[in-house]
Amino acid sequence: MPSRAFGIALWIALASAVLFLTLPVLALFLRVPPDELVAQLASERAREAIRVSLTTSLVAHALILGFGTPAAYLLATKRFRGRAFVVSLLELPLVLPPAVAGIGLLAAFGRSGLLGEELGALGLSIPFTQLAVVLAVCFVASPFYVRAAIAAFEAIDPRLLDASRTLGADRGRTFRRVALPLAAGGLGAGSTLAFARGLGEFGATIMFAGSLPGRTQTAPLAIYDSLDQDFDVALALGALFVVFSILILLAAKLIPLWTRSASISPFPFARSRST
Amino acid sequence: MIRACAIAVVVAAAVLIAGCGDSDDGPLEVFAASSLRDVAPKVDRAPRYTFAGSDELAAQIRDGAPADVFLSASGTPVQELRAAGLVEAPFVFASNRLVVVVPAANPAGLNAFAELARPGLKLVLGGEGVPIGDYAREALAAAGLEAALENVVSLEQDVKGVLGKVALGEADAGIVYATDVRAAADDVRELAIPDEVQPDVRYYAAVVSAGDVERAAEFVRRLAREEGAGALRAAAFLPVPNRAE
User: Fold this and answer.
1) Measured in Å, how far apart are chain B's first and last C-alpha atoms?
2) What are A122-149's pLDDT values in tens digits?
């Protein structure tokens, strides 16, 4: 009997957790009728915010992939002194409050910041521009990708890379033809998570880039800004984010499964070299 | 059953947080416009203050935030709450003026209000619906400086956001209340805005109907009496214009 009570208690706890976590999400859709939500998304404010968000996120994502992939490959395949420290440095933005990221970006790249004079000499003034949004997104989102990429590259059986080298491929070719395809699942999952985190970026952006509709006001900033006057626009953008987030979660879960089945690895369990 | 489970979580959270001492029987809750941040505690130290843009505070009160008193930097937010029956009759307790602030180093070399329309300037204003933003746009329009709106690089949520961006040296100029300049006197310089384009800035006090009405009324009376008026004057707020509405 006590064992049965325990079982019931577990189910009640689970039901409570699930309901509590899904209710706010559901409430977004219930407060305003669906056709009204769609109509609000067509409003100028919402469209501008979505456009700014997509532009800046895509540019930031290209930078994250372009710099993050080779960096993660190096960290996954080379052991060197201070490697663990470097990995921790790259992960730091993951646990840093976004407001701290914002003030840090201002202190570094602001007009009166550490590099302000050098940037000014180049004719660059970063705060209040879309470049500032891109930098803020890169700062907070890149660790999500880099972490996943390191894990994905580490999961590759090192004998496959060695075989590629003995068969005459140089390091670059081995990276392109062997490592990248084998790590694709993990890279894709990390990439989607980083993209989602970047789209949702708020704190660092509002401090570093300000908030101007059509220029630096991303969708999360537009939600905050609309709260007091256009609550329906805020709800519509919120609902859009929910739909998008569900797609991201699905993608992050499906991409590794789908690429694993296509894996060319002869070994069912890759030997992990991670520490 | 479904509702019961969801409510159980909320009740559990409420019990835990109540155990941590966040009880109802606390100090008076005063929601006040950001520009009152420095002066309000001098009028009365006892209440717990929440400072933000008046429009944002009004939205929070509409959503049931536990305010007892609302001090707004303009009429619109408080009149909307009044129309919804959420606050008692408001009254005007102070007035203010606008000034232009530029960083101490004055990177754009600005010397006058009229220069805000100069192309390429980085101007920061309050957002749409935020009192300091609406007053600033009113002043610019009255002076025929609509071109200055092209220079806006950021629309902030409250006056402290405007002042902060200028004090950090990131923006070339911003429009704030004259009383805000003291808080950043080392980092900013002020340029006057001519009398003839100054908007009619009025601060409203209102008792929130759902709050502790009695204690709230006592606080609001204190604002109008000599002790409150004295603190406001000392902080450079202006007395209530004679033509009260």
Assistant:
1) 53
2) 888 899 999 999 999 999 999 999 999 9
As a whole number of angstroms, the distance between CA B214 and CA B191 comes to 42
Q: DSSP string spanning A199-228? A: HT--HHHHHHT---TTTT--HHHHHHHHTT
B19 pLDDT band, cuts 50/70/90, is low
pLDDT one-digit tens code per residue, A259-275: 654 444 445 454 555 44
Q: For residue B57, what is the nearest residue in chain A, using CA coordinates? A: A228
What is the pTM for the complete model shown?
0.81
Fold of A52-211: MetI-like fold (1.10.3720)
Q: What is the mean pLDDT of chain A?
A: 88
Find chain B residues with C-beta within 8 A of A20's C-beta.
Answer: 5-6, 9-10
- A111 vs B contacts (CB less than 8 Å): 107, 169-170
Contacts of B6 in chain A (CB under 8 A): 16, 19-20, 23
Q: Is B102 helix (H, G, I), strand (E, B) or coil?
A: strand
State which H helix or E strand residue A8 sits in. Answer: helix A2-31
A198-213 mean pLDDT: 92
Q: Chain B: nearest CA to A225, how far in angstroms?
A: 7
Q: Average of pLDDT values for A205-228?
A: 90
Q: What is the pLDDT of residue B225?
A: 85
Sequence letter at residue A268: P
Write down the domain spans for chain A.
Answer: 52-211
Measure the CA–CA gap between B140 and B115, rounded to whole angstroms: 11
Site from B34, B155, B170, B187 to mutate, A interface, most A CB atoms within 10 angstroms: B170
Among all residues of chain A, which has the CA nearest to that of B55?
A228
Confidence of residue B224 (pLDDT cuts 50, 70, 90): confident
Bridge partners of residue B96, in order along the sequence: B201
**Has domain B98-197 been given CATH number 3.50.50.60?**
no
CATH 3.40.190.10 domain residues, chain B: 26-95+202-234, 98-197
Q: CATH 3.40.50.20: does it fit domain B26-95+202-234?
A: no
A contact set with B (CB within 8 A): 12, 15-17, 19-20, 23, 106, 110-112, 125, 127-128, 209-213, 215-217, 224-225, 227-229
Mean pLDDT along residues A3-20: 92
